[in-house]
Each structure stands twice: as structure tokens, then as C-alpha cells.
UniProtKB/TrEMBL annotation:
Species: Aporhodopirellula aestuarii
Keywords: ATP-binding, Nucleotide-binding, Transport
Domain named ABC transporter: residues: 10-237
GO molecular function: ATP binding
PANTHER family xrefs: ABC TRANSPORTER ATP-BINDING PROTEIN MG467-RELATED (PTHR42798:SF2), LIPOPROTEIN-RELEASING SYSTEM ATP-BINDING PROTEIN LOLD (PTHR42798)
Signal peptide: none
Similarity comment text for this entry: Belongs to the ABC transporter superfamily.
Name of the protein: ABC transporter ATP-binding protein
UniProt keyword annotation of Transcription regulation present: no
Superkingdom to which the source organism belongs: Bacteria
């Protein structure tokens, strides 16, 4: 199915976000218009302060815009109240952040089962660990896992709810190159095998080589949108 016939998962219309920092007004987003379609792997690329994290948080229902609209399928998220946004995050969105946020007293499997117990149509915790290559580490606690393994558990936790969307904020930011590649391979596998619409934000232009599409942000605006005609696997990245 070509991108022209795929369902639009996210659509933003003149999205703005302004923060008040004391007497200073910070414009994090300045009229952003974009669309993300089903099953695509998108990299949101930009320097620190470009607005990419703010945009990701709004798409994920963690933040609300100052003005403009954001649609998830046919739902106007900007018209949703707190309860509706909570339900949206729970049922439809998986989040992966730079820091793993695992509960130290729970095993890898138990960390994931916290999510599967409240999800509508979850993936079995062991199956989620299998997807990220950590089934044999299911009964290990976070302190017994490397940084890369902890991040992969966090990814397994995010996908265990079987979300339509996976939003990743600098998922390799705290990892070395080799470990980062392993983590990126896990994210790419989820996108490829589960068809999960995936958006990864990064300041690392090398990661953009994995994407179907690269959206560059600068000063709260979209600077460019490029289709990636030479998409590579994580192991082939030129760092």
C-alpha cells in the first residue's frame, strides 16, 4: 500500500506552543502543520530547543498546544478533556524516553505486566520481551541489566499495550553507539513487524538514515520534510 493510500494517523493544523518563563515568553512551536501516516517510521530531527520534544508531547497527549489543532485519526485531541487524554494515552500510545523509568523492585516481566494489566488488548509480557530480544532476562531486576537492556525493557513495556503509535524521545541518548544500534534495531523491528506508526526524535542526523521520512525542525517550525529513498538498517548506520 503506497503512502498516498495509507490512513493519516496524526494531523496538526497551525500548532503553536508558548511557555511563560518568568517575564520571558518562549515560543516552542510556531504554526506547525504535519501529517503522519499508518505504519511509517518518522524521525523528527533538530537541535536542542528546536521544538521536537514539545511536538512529540502534544502528539502523545502529554501536553496541550496554545493554539491550533491536533487530530489522532478522527479525534480532535485539542477538544479532549483530561480524562479523554488519559484514555487516549492508555489505549493508543506507547512512550519511550531517554531514561528508562523502570521500577527497581520489579523484574523485567513484572515491569511490563504493570501495563498489560490495564491495557485493552495487550501483548503478553513474555512475547513483548521476545520482540526486543530479552526473553531470557525476564526475571532479572533493572539493577541486573545493562543500560541497553533496560531501554529495551522500556520499549517492551511501551509496546505491550499493543499501541497504534510508538513515540520515542531520544531513546539512544544515554547509550553508547553499539548499544544504541541494538535499541534502534528493536524499535525498527516493532515498526516493521507490528506496523506501529513510529516517531523518533533525535538530534543525531545519523539515525535519520533509518526513517521512511525525516522531518527537520528549527526554532519551533518545520524546516524541511524529506522522504528517505535509501533507508538503511540500524547496523548499517554511518555514525
Amino acid at each position: 500500500m503506497s503512502s498516498a493510500t495509507k490512513t493519516t494517523v496524526f494531523r496538526t493544523v497551525d500548532l503553536t506552543k508558548t511557555y511563560q518563563m518568568g517575564e520571558v515568553e518562549v515560543r516552542a512551536l510556531r504554526g506547525v502543520n504535519l501529517e503522519l501516516v499508518e505504519s511509517e517510521f518518522v524521525v523528527l530531527l533538530g537541535a536542542s530547543g528546536s521544538g521536537k520534544s514539545t511536538l512529540l508531547n502534544i502528539l502523545g497527549g502529554l501536553d496541550t498546544p496554545t493554539s491550533g489543532q491536533v487530530f489522532y485519526l478522527d479525534t480532535d485531541l485539542t477538544a479532549s478533556d483530561d480524562r479523554e487524554l488519559t484514555r487516549y494515552r492508555r489505549d493508543h500510545v506507547g512512550f519511550v524516553f531517554q531514561f528508562y523509568n523502570l521500577i527497581p523492585s520489579l523484574t523485567a516481566r513484572e515491569n511490563i505486566e504493570l501495563i498489560t494489566e490495564i491495557a485493552v488488548s495487550p501483548i503478553d509480557a513474555m512475547d513483548a520481551l521476545e520482540i526486543v530480544g530479552l526473553r531470557e532476562r525476564a526475571n532479572h531486576f533493572p539493577a541486573q541489566l545493562s543500560g541497553g537492556e533496560q531501554q529495551r525493557v522500556a520499549i517492551a513495556r511501551a509496546i505491550a499495550k499493543n499501541p497504534q503509535v510508538l513515540l520515542c524521545d531520544e531513546p539512544t541518548g544515554a547509550l553508547d553507539v553499539h548499544t544504541g544500534i541494538v535499541v534502534l534495531e528493536a524499535i525498527a523491528r516493532i515498526n516493521r513487524e507490528l506496523g506501529t506508526t513510529t516517531a523518533v526524535i533525535t538530534h543525531n542526523a545519523s539515525i535519520a538514515q533509518m526513517a521512511d521520512r525525516v522531518i527537520a525542525l528549527s526554532d519551533g517550525q518545520i524546516a524541511s520534510v524529506e522522504m528517505n529513498v535509501s533507508k538503511v538498517n540500524a547496523s548499517e548506520l554511518q555514525w
